[in-house]
Amino acid sequence: MSAALIEQLAVIVGASQVSTDPDVLSGRSVDYTGRYQGQAGALVRPGTAEEVAAVLRACRDVGVYVTVQGGRTSLVAGTVPEHHDVLLSTERLTAIDAVDTVERRVRVGAGATLAAVQRAASAAGLLFGVDLAARDSATVGGMASTNAGGLRTVRYGNMGEQVIGLDVALPDGSVLRRHSEVRSDNTGYDLTALFVGAEGTLGVITGLDLRLHPIPAHRVTAVAGFDDLDALIAAGRRFRDADGVAALELIDARAATLTAEHLGVPAPVAGAWMLLIELAGDADHTESLAEMLEDADLSGEPAVGMDTVASQRLWQVRESVGDVLGAYGPPLKFDVSLPLAAIAGFTTAAVDLVARHAPEAIPVLFGHIGEGNLHLNLVRCALDGDREHALYSAMMALIAEHGGNVSSEHGVGTRKRDYLSMARTESDIAAMRAVKSALDPTGYLNPAVLFV
């Protein structure tokens, strides 16, 4: 990292917004789980889209790699630099404009946290459709870059369905502004969709127009326990297609045990598996909930939350899982997308696979059963090097054998780039590479992400 480049970056963003401190860079070069470490040469924090573009242009001109960072909550090491990169942080792009309550939309900076956007929407009597347990640190720019899903995807969809406009700093140092004030705009390429899910490989999202939704007048939450996973999946299939479904979450007993032991959050029901159900809408769905659970093969009486406080208690087990996964060291994470019919078979096979490769590890399964999107986490998994790679590769193959996708909502990042061909055909990958080459011919932007 040349002194001349550092000086140029300081001129662009201000000297106080550039750091080459080894301790700062080391802290910024580790992934969210603490499992993977990279190397960086400098950290730069632009304050406007134009500054982002100027930083990109300066780095491109001298052939320095750039890794983009938002809230750094990536679970596939998507923000870990591999080439002594410049780290470009969007953390100063936090502006949130006044909410347009008529059109139900808001314009925000890419560095705004999910929680901040949720508060702004709520203050205007509206709701932002995507919710994550990492809401206090995840930024909406990063969430759009990975097309994040989350806890209420079954009702509102993922980030791609919330993003209706973008500002993007392109690799050539220009700024693309794609905004439309109308709801229906069928004028050529959908450039907004191109950058959502691109994981920062095509440009740096600096601002977004986000769709907002009415707040449901009624909400009812329940947690039901099951001894048999197939019985839970059968119930989940019914609720997935139910009127007013807002959330449908799977939690296994191991996750409940961990949250009880380490956070004092008790499981609300007994059973090897728990299904959290939330129904919401203009009408009260309590009777519908009871009717759909009546024929389910439950392990006991469900716990039902009729008011906000009771519902929050029921959500605690699900939302607390992420906080306890690191109790035994950095967990090994798998983001699993499967057809509902394949989940039980995959779960049994995955537990057997883990027992062969890492018998000391504790498999913990939870996730968004409505989309077949599950998070398999291995806690107390001390594998490293070749042994970890062998387990990871075997698990990716097992997902593919069960008709699944190697990534559902966390993206590909650096962890899954070797397995992209399990989810995409050769022609798919060639087309993606062509788009990457057209926008970033030298490949300097997020070079470790997505492609080998």
From TrEMBL:
InterPro entries attached to this UniProt entry: FAD-bd_oxidored_4_C, FAD-bd_PCMH, FAD-bd_PCMH-like_sf, FAD-bd_PCMH_sub1, FAD-bd_PCMH_sub2, FAD-linked_Oxase-like_C, FAD-oxidored/transferase_4, Oxid_FAD_bind_N
Protein family (similarity comment): Belongs to the FAD-binding oxidoreductase/transferase type 4 family.
UniProt-listed GO biological process terms: respiratory electron transport chain
The UniProt record lists the keyword Transmembrane helix: no
One Gene Ontology term of the molecular function aspect: FAD binding
Taxonomy, superkingdom: Bacteria
Keywords for this protein: FAD, Flavoprotein, Oxidoreductase
Organism: Mycobacterium adipatum
Protein's UniProt name: Oxidoreductase
FAD-binding PCMH-type domain ranges (all copies): 36-215
CC cofactor: FAD
Stored Gene3D superfamilies: 3.30.465.10, 3.30.70.2190, 3.30.70.2740, Uridine Diphospho-n-acetylenolpyruvylglucosamine Reductase, domain 2, Vanillyl-alcohol Oxidase, Chain A, domain 4
